[in-house]
Amino acid sequence: MSEPRRYFVAVAGNIGxxxxxxxxxxxxxxxxxxxxxxxxxxxxLADFYADMPRWSFxxxxxxxxxxxxHHRQLxxxxxxxxxxxxxxxxxxxxxxxxxQQGQMSxxxxxxxxxxxxxxxxxxxxxxxVIYLKASVGTLAERISQRGRAYERxxxxxxxxxxxxxxxxxxxAWTECxxxxxxxxxxxxxxxxxxxxxxxxxxxxxxxx
Length: 208
Prior knowledge:
The protein is of the alpha/beta class. The protein has a single domain (8-206), classed as Rossmann fold (3-Layer(aba) Sandwich), CATH 3.40.50. 55% of the residues lie in helices and 12% in strands. It has 8 helices and 5 strands, in the order βαβααβααβααβα. The chain has helices at residues 19-30, 45-50, 52-76, 87-100, 106-120, 136-146, 156-172, 192-206, and strands at 8-13, 33-35, 81-84, 128-133, 178-182. It has a 5-stranded parallel beta sheet with strand order 2-3-1-4-5, sandwiched between helices. Helix 3 (52-76) packs antiparallel against helix 4 and helix 6 (136-146) packs across helix 7 (156-172). The radius of gyration is 17 Å and the shape is globular. 30% of the residues are buried.
């Protein structure tokens, strides 16, 4: 008798889009293992905030190394898993934004990309990426509502920059199927019917 199929789903989206919430909901609804964003202490973070151009490469490489380790753990996990934020977002969104805003040099970004692409080639992609698409207004409102002290300094301009990169990344994504959820339309946290729509589409996508 063959073993049941294992699934790996990654939930992607900007700050405040609802990644952690949906990760927990899917895990509970399907009996999967949730893997939330790792919170390893970045030893470069204080230096990075003091001098971004000098320390952005070091800080991003540290985050990338942790995310790649996390991805490998997901691949090796014996059951189905759902992940809060993917390794792809570190490179395609956050590191790219630092480069585009002049906080990372072209030389450092090129080296970072070479490292990312080289390691990524050996990591199987998820079975599905769920992209939580949200307007900047929705993101800002949610960030304000959850009241995290370290998020108070996040500007509308920064969220706008990230949103543009998320849409660009999602539009060019080909590694695996992508399911887009407009969180301005579907409130899967507070409206049961909207949650049912999201879970039904997820099941259809994976043929569960």
